[in-house]
Design brief:
By secondary structure, this protein is α/β, with parallel strands linked by helices. The chain is about 30% helix and about 10% strand.
Length: about 425
């Protein structure tokens, strides 16, 4: 997993994957393809690059998108998964992001982690088939890319440690685990955790013809008022050389992203590595180089994820900031965040896609803009003014056929009149 370079990415000179890992290879951002040339390099400055990302997230955690409930037969699970793929293809989307490792468990026969409880209702129960392998095969049969989505640190979405199978790595290595905010996490500061997470992911990369490895916005957990993530002992043990715990935490996440990206390219050169973070790196009030926002969460300061750095260093192939706000939203305006990311990505060769909050359309409690069927279509029109933006992804897949307020039909009619290939990376 490591390299001959110093063990702290923040001390590395600026490098490209191509020079460091695979010769002429260039990297793109979050969940895109990493091929031999920067994505759209020839097209930038000479019109928009060929291809357009049109993706949807299929979340398996808590049965959000698939399967719709636990304990269904294999035949019914397969039928539902095929429906998700068909829905994407029918709308002329070209990518599905399938959550393969939702909670330190697996949607494939992993030698390292148990079968996911979201399949059967009981962690470790063999469903009798291979969902990830099936998803890859059937997605490709429909002309869709399949990006495999892994959550690196979340062990349980609740505090019920007793529901982990006895042989779970979290039970074997209790020093790897931190309970926090009613959930259970692996401690990102433990080097063995970092190596183990990579091992789990690379198993899927080797086994399957996936098009990308995909992370979402979960790194260190979102802050919970009045609670502290209990990693002081880990910091004392492994934080030598870091006077500031926040810098050490950021370095822990940097190491995972840097090392995993290199390992993916060594394993299969054409597999992309993408990340879909919370969209605000830092507010301008915190850092003059940040975005003109007043967000309550900043990935750099609260999740210890220096997402801008990953783009600048080209450690990832594509990035999909989750710009889950409407145009004109006061504290986090879509029309301010997208241009900020456009500027960050410019000149890096990393692909930029924008994550869209389909789940907010027509939802109770949302601002008035989300009750306008044209809001999402306006987002895509706005993105057309920024040459680095090469497409959009929608959360989440189950809402595509529900077509809230007719918003999906509207954006497809306005923007997806013809099929489109995915952008080159």
């Amino acid at each position: 997993m490591g390299s001959s370079t110093p063990d702290r990415p923040h001390h590395l000179s600026r490098r490209r994957f191509g020079a460091a890992a695979v010769g002429a290879l260039s990297a793109v951002t979050v969940a895109g393809d990493a091929m031999a040339a920067p994505a759209g390099a020839a097209g930038r400055g000479h019109g928009r690059p060929a291809g357009q990302m049109r993706g949807s997230w299929v979340a398996t955690v808590a049965n959000i998108d698939w399967p719709v409930q636990q304990g269904l037969s294999a035949a019914e699970q397969q039928r539902q998964l095929l429906a998700r793929l068909d829905e994407a293809a029918d709308l002329r989307l070209n990518t599905v992001v399938f959550q393969a490792r939702p909670t330190a468990d697996a949607m494939w026969p992993s030698p390292y982690e148990p079968w996911s409880e979201w399949l059967s209702g009981t962690q470790g129960t063999d469903p009798g088939w291979d969902p990830l392998g099936f998803a890859v095969r059937e997605a490709h049969r429909r002309g869709l890319e399949l990006h495999a989505w892994f959550n690196p640190y979340r062990v349980r979405n609740d505090a019920l440690a007793e529901k982990l199978v006895p042989g779970h790595p979290a039970n074997k290595h209790p020093d790897w685990v931190v309970p926090y905010g009613g959930k259970i996490y692996y401690d990102p500061g433990v080097p063995q955790v970092r190596r183990f997470v990579q091992q789990c992911i690379l198993d899927a990369v080797r086994r399957y013809d996936i098009d990308a490895v995909h992370f979402d916005d979960y790194f260190y957990p979102y802050p919970v008022a009045g609670q502290e993530f209990a990693d002081e002992e880990t910091y004392r043990k492994y934080g030598g050389g870091f006077a500031d715990k926040a810098d050490w935490r950021r370095n822990n996440v940097d190491l995972l992203v840097y090392e995993l990206g290199r390992a993916i390219k060594r394993t299969k050169r054409n597999v992309q590595f993408g990340v879909s973070p919370f969209a605000v790196w830092r507010n301008a009030a915190t850092d003059p180089e940040g975005s003109d926002t007043q967000a309550g969460t900043q990935t750099y300061d609260n999740l210890y994820a220096d997402t801008r750095k990953w783009v600048r260093e080209r450690w990832i192939d594509y990035i999909v900031p989750q710009v889950y706000w409407n145009i004109g939203f006061a504290v986090a305006d879509y029309a301010k965040i997208v241009p900020w990311w456009n500027d960050v990505v410019a000149g890096t060769g990393v692909n930029l896609y924008i994550g869209e909050a389909l789940y907010k359309v027509g939802a109770a409690g949302q601002p008035e803009a989300w009750f306008d069927p044209a809001e999402l279509s306006r987002h895509l029109t706005f993105c057309q003014g920024y040459p680095e933006v090469q497409g959009n992804m929608y959360f989440s897949a189950k809402l595509l056929p529900q077509d809230p307020l007719g918003a999906v039909s509207r954006l497809v009619a306005d923007h997806y009149g013809q099929p489109a290939p995915t952008p080159r990376c």
